[in-house]
Design brief:
Blueprint: H1 19-38, E1 44-49, E2 51-57, E3 62-69, H2 80-93, E4 102-109, H3 122-130, H4 137-162, H5 168-179, H6 183-191, E5 193-197, H7 202-217, H8 229-244, E6 253-254, H9 256-264, H10 269-282, H11 292-308, H12 315-327, H13 333-348, H14 365-373, H15 384-401, H16 407-426, H17 431-447, H18 454-466, H19 469-472, H20 481-496, H21 501-539, H22 544-560, H23 567-583, H24 587-603, H25 612-627, H26 630-647, H27 658-677, H28 682-692, H29 694-710, H30 714-717
Parallel strand pairs: 3-4, 4-5
Antiparallel strand pairs: 1-2, 1-6, 2-3
Helix pairs in contact: 1-7, 1-8, 2-4, 3-4, 4-6, 10-11, 11-12, 11-13, 12-13, 13-14, 13-15, 15-16, 15-17, 16-17, 17-18, 18-21, 20-21, 21-22, 22-23, 23-24, 23-25, 24-25, 25-26, 25-27, 27-28, 27-29
Amino acid sequence: MSLHKLFLFTKDTDASATEQGFQYQKLKTLKTWIENRINKVDEVIYCDYEEDIFQRNFKERKAKFRQFKLYSSNFSFSKEEIQKSLAHFFMLFVKGEYKFDEIQFLFETNSGIAKEVKGNDADLLREWVANQDTMSNELRAKCRERVKTIINDYIGETYEAKNSAERKAELQQAKNIYDQLRDDTWEAFVSSIKWQFDTISQEQAIPVLLEEITALIQNLPLPIDPSKVSKYISVLHFEIANRTAQDNDEDRMLTNKLLDLLLLNEGSEKVRWYADVYQKSSSVKAIKRFSIGAFYEAINAARHCRWEMHDSDHVALWLDMLKKYIDLDETIVVCRRKAIYEYLFLMTSPDPKTGQPKGKISDQQDLIRYYFRELEHRKSFADIEEDIILLQIVQAQQLFSGAFLDETETSIWVTEIERRIEKRIANPTNADELCQAYELKGHFTFHLNPNSPLKEKVNAAIEVYKKILNPLVDATIYSISRLNDQLTQIVNILIHHGVDDEVIDSIESFIAEVEEHASKTGKHHNSAHNLVERGMAYINKPSAKNYLKALECFHKAKNLWYLLETREGYILALINIAEVYSALGMHMAAKYYGLCGVWASFHFGDYTTLKRISDSYAMVFYADFKQGAWMSALDDFEQYIKSRLEFTPKALDLENDSLLRKTLLDLSCVLAASPTLHPDLSVFIEYQKKNLGWLFTDHLKEMVDVFNVKFPDKDSFE
């Protein structure tokens, strides 16, 4: 039977409503949206489409239509709003678009059920509500007949209203289908209807709803700031209002991903960065080219998710992204190992507070073997720490989940890691390397061999860590503050698990012993930060004397930041020094410090500093540009734009990226002025334009044309 033809009887349900009613509907939508995110319900919510809320789960083929009523009076079957709602539900029930879905209709109101009065059948409605999940055949039959009476009246009225010469045959065919509906169709419709009467006064309904939403927001698996809850509600409420007004059905959709992005973009700078990477990565179907900048951006985002958002459901996205890099032939070995490390760590999903794993890696033998087979491929000696951590996870899972690797294999890996650490202890290049080697040996002693008694491992590890203190006096860039933080976190986990106080006391005793050394890093960082602020204050009052004072401040900051934990600050200080030398007209000195920034960004061996390579090259370019060494500047720009595209995967944005804007403006001056000042360079400059390709046509050509119009000859350019 072609039930969908009954949709001809649909009426226009749009009607005027109070502002309170609209707000109630939006807040109900908001509450549902947040509940879906908390409960990880994978469905799309459509704002004011088909019904006040239309929820559709495409995977499970479920459709839920919900209508909300904010009323001061109670309801019965004689109430016009009930009759209209049932009629509209019926029209959606017969609509062909949803015939393969499991459909549910929900009538929700703040109000209650009226008292029984002759003809209103309020008691029948009350009985239906009380037994809606377990309806007897007798009750279902009574409800069926009451609903059928309401729909009969609706169909009759609509038939008369829509009947015309042009539509008579079509309407009559639909009426005939309706008249032949069987009881099982009516019972299916009745069974799909649910009722919710909250019995809250109209005045209290919205305040109560807001209180519920406020509590729900704080339970979201996102980095929520409790002091910003009202702002979060405003942002989400505005989004619902905005989408409700859209004409396109797809633009009315609310999803869990959209909620995450909206709230993450209200967070700190780091959280907003994560939101941007998350949004970009969500649309990646395949990775066709290996870019080290995009790769480490994904690594950083996956790590941020692991530490800051371990309760979210973002893990699946990053596992998929990391697997793409692992399987990509172009991925270099050192990066593939890094991707495997993060992939396996994410699979176990350990809780940062308790250290307890939530997943298993027992079926990832091939990736584990590849990782330890390529132990020599690492960026720096310090990366052995990740080898130790991953081996610790493997040993723990072997112990608790059953042996999925041969013990001979894991023993070989343990021996090889220990051999590399001992070799560095025996032959360190300097005090920094020796401190780092002792720290790694302490980690090795503490984290591996889960069968050994914890007390013995802790005491043995502390004895190794103590050996750091002698060479620490001569160390230049090594700082014990990171070890101090790690041990503090371990103590917190041990306290959580109720470990023997003697074990905890041993660690706390060592923490107290190194606390003064560890605090130096924080003191150095604060002092360096203050020096930079003072230096910028001098620059903002330009004079030769103030520039020299700024230089002194930046040099002092540079020396204080020359530590492993503050290496990015060190590079930024080098760039600041280059800028001051440029302001003084000392362009060779500026170029030298720009090149120092490039060197440090590469040779610190830390992927977090790679993004500073392009910033440093920008200073090198600017120094050559101001010096008049334009041929060198063209080479500098090539290095700048290559590193900018490779290590900073953001799209080129002239409006918000001031360094890029300034660099391109100076380059366009070179391209415009060179042929005018030296006509013999015209062919060379045209060749440079051609090599720049899309960069020239999309970003530089317009600026070059403006230069040529404004300065048409040699005299005006000079």
